[in-house]
From TrEMBL:
CDD domains: MoeA_like. Keywords: Magnesium, Metal-binding, Molybdenum, Molybdenum cofactor biosynthesis, Transferase. Belongs to the MoeA family. Its cofactor is Mg(2+). Catalyzes the insertion of molybdate into adenylated molybdopterin with the concomitant release of AMP. The keyword Nucleus does not apply. Gene3D superfamilies: MoaB/Mog-like domain, Molybdopterin biosynthesis moea protein, domain 2. Residues 172-304 form the MoaB/Mog domain. This is Molybdopterin molybdenumtransferase. It comes from Anaeromicrobium sediminis. It is an enzyme of class 2 (transferase).
Amino acid sequence: MKKISVHEAVGHVLCHDITQIIPGKIKDRAFKKGHVVREEDIPVLLSLGKDNLYVWENKEGYLHEDDAAQRLSKMSAGAGIDFSEVKEGKINFIAKYDGLLKIDTNMLYEVNKLEEIMLATRHNNTPVKKGDKLAGTRVIPLVIDEKKIIEAESIAKNTFIEVVPYKKLKVGVVTTGNEVYYGRIEDKFGPVIKEKIESYGSEVIEQRIVNDDSDVIAKNIEELMDKGADMIVCTGGMSVDPDDTTPTGIKKVGGEIISYGAPVLPGAMFLISYKGDTPILGLPGCVMYAKTTVFDLVLPRVLIGERIKKEDLAAYGHGGLCLECDVCTYPACSFGKGW
């Protein structure tokens, strides 16, 4: 790359895009990298404030910003990701399909510590839709020493950004509570759970409404698993009241309690357990009436087949406070966006 006067640029190849900005009207590419400058381009370039241009000259061991961005995107992007065209040295990562965005944040941090390289992403564990923008990468200078890209590639070793598709699970729901079982109040949990489950492509195969007998709760969980349920969701009976026996019922069926309680509001009384590979979730009452809760944070991770650990829940403490906005914008907000 060399710098020359715009008046001497006719016949030379631009080595970078040139942007035209008219406030409130346009911000777009006026000349594309690789354009061969013509005589009639000179007045336009001058009107864009370009008295000098960088034109391409090959220099061994150096990469143009577009080529460097392509190397960085190939190095970091794994399954489920498409790319935008390279524009002004930048490539955007685009979701190929609906799923959960997974990022090795430690690897991302190490790459961004390198000079003259940047890679910006959305938060780890964000549910995304096909076509969503996930990340963007570029190098800072127009031309970069190839050794810096090689260093980044040696740090990464494997791709560290991907979209994991949701599994289509069969879900059994056990709704507990004498007040619902005996018809004193209408069940409000079932429709909420069904809507959330189906929004990810899974299905509720059956809902059982039972009383507060822990043996009965355990029996119905077992029967739903025998009928092919890949996941059990228990609603109600999750507080510390003596009549709330759902955690006891889950223990009686042989569920290994990973955590009873989570540093998330709404959703502090959340329970997650496993019987073998089958997740059994105990949902607190807030899931019935709050727009977004701990259930919305954990459910997508369960639906990609991730086995939730106690430390996963502990990490939600940073970012685990829902602001309960009048208009919910989750997942485009701070809720659940921790480390």
